[in-house]
Design brief:
Number of domains: 2
Oligomer: single chain
Strand order of the largest sheet: 1-2-4-3-5-16-6-15
Structural class: alpha/beta
CATH superfamily of the largest domain: Zn peptidases
Number of strands: 16
Number of helices: 10
């Protein structure tokens, strides 16, 4: 193993217990998007001890720099938890009612702190061949995401390449999942509001049958998009909220359908909003109601740079050993790391969190659990990817 990677391995091993305790502390005290103040404080507390130059971001979030000159590599982790009840029985389960790290961001943050410890040791020994910037980003779980917040405040300025990881409960711990090109999809939010004059269900011909129109939108909009958009783009509309009326014999005068639009292809993503708006108006026109569409363009696909993926792959082979990486499929999940990759090349890889032979948990569920050995593997891979990128610059 390369000497720098071997040092990373030993430093992460030295801090293994501390990183697990940090993760458990963050898990006990989760904070939702834009409120990650305590989480940011804990990050700063750990990094300041190791010589990182700290910048607190407005609202929340932390950027930390080390080294200077030549190439600068960025490493990003997200801080926020979800408004989901923690259903686990671990001693470190969430102490905040209705909030939990059900997506593994506590693992991401702890792994990046561990990578920071290892990179600081390299820097102290004169082995860091450039600069590294750690981006502890708020608000990944809301659209359009905290990535744009950090970009707008200059956090990406001067970065030549960037890496990130994401927990994957379908992959065993000690294994990383890689994919060149798109690894996630675009994700947008749509809210369709209908208004009509309402009336008695015995006289639908004298009213705007708003409930019927709402039902047509939920079934026909996905059908329209399947014909108006390239089917290879993988456009998926799924509704999460349908709300109209309060009595079985009353046609209501207002209603709403809310959901997400997910798209595998970046070009189709750019065109989709216009098609959705036109289609909604056409669908409701025969029913005598009016429609308004709020369409929030959320996040683009994460499109991994081939060269960056190759750097992660070589790092995995060196640090984890052969056969500890796997090819993964593109997900329909959204991730605002895609905003960074619209500015600089980089890659997101998936971090296995499943105990071998153990249960497969689903992200964004209250019973989500991880094998905590993943924290050390994530720290090694993040720090190692940075060193590999700097060596090849």
């Amino acid at each position: 193993m390369d000497a720098s990677l071997a040092l990373i391995d030993s430093v992460v091993a030295k801090y293994a217990d501390e990183l697990v305790e940090l993760r458990r502390d963050l898990h006990r005290h989760p904070e939702v998007s834009w409120h990650e103040q305590r989480t940011s404080d804990r990050v700063v507390e750990h990094l300041e001890r190791h010589g990182w130059r700290i910048s607190r971001m407005p609202r929340s979030g932390v950027v930390a720099d080390l080294g200077e000159g030549g190439t600068t590599v960025g490493l990003r982790a997200d801080l926020d938890a979800l408004p989901v009840a923690d259903l686990t029985t671990d001693p470190w389960r969430s102490e905040v009612e209705g909030v939990a790290h059900a997506c593994g961001h506590d693992v991401h943050t702890s792994a990046l702190v561990g990578a920071g410890h290892a990179l600081a040791e390299l820097h102290e020994r004169g082995l860091l061949r450039g600069g590294v910037r750690l981006l502890f980003q708020p608000a990944e779980e809301v659209m359009p995401g905290g990535a744009r917040h950090l970009i707008n405040h200059g956090a990406l300025t001067g970065i030549d390449r960037i890496f990130a990881l994401h927990c994957d409960p379908s992959v065993d711990v000690g294994v990383v999942g890689l994919r060149s090109g798109p690894i996630t999809s675009a994700a947008d939010r749509i809210d369709v509001r209908l208004e009509g004059n309402g009336g008695h269900t015995s006289r639908p011909h004298l009213t705007g049958d708003l409930t019927f129109a709402l039902a047509k939108i939920t079934s026909e909009l996905p059908a329209v998009l399947s014909r108006r958009m390239d089917p290879r783009a993988g456009v998926s509309v799924v509704w999460g909220v349908l709300r109209a009326g309060s009595a079985a014999n009353v046609i209501p005068d207002h209603g709403i359908a809310s959901g997400t639009v997910r798209i595998l292809d970046a070009e189709a993503w750019a065109a989709c909003e216009a098609v959705v708006r036109e289609a909604v108006l056409d669908i409701v026109r025969p029913y005598g109601v009016t429609a308004s569409v709020d369409y929030l363009q959320g996040v683009p696909p994460v499109v991994n740079d081939r060269v960056s993926v190759a750097m992660v792959a070589s790092t995995a082979d060196e640090m984890l050993g052969l056969h500890h990486r796997t090819e993964v499929e593109q997900s329909l999940g959204g991730e605002d790391f895609g905003w960074y990759l619209e500015h600089v090349p980089g890659a997101m890889f998936r971090l296995g969190t499943r105990s071998p032979g153990g249960a497969t948990f689903d992200l964004h569920q209250g019973d989500f659990q991880v094998d905590e050995a993943a924290i050390g593997y994530g720290a090694r891979m993040l720090a190692g990817a940075a060193v590999t990128a700097l060596a090849q610059a």
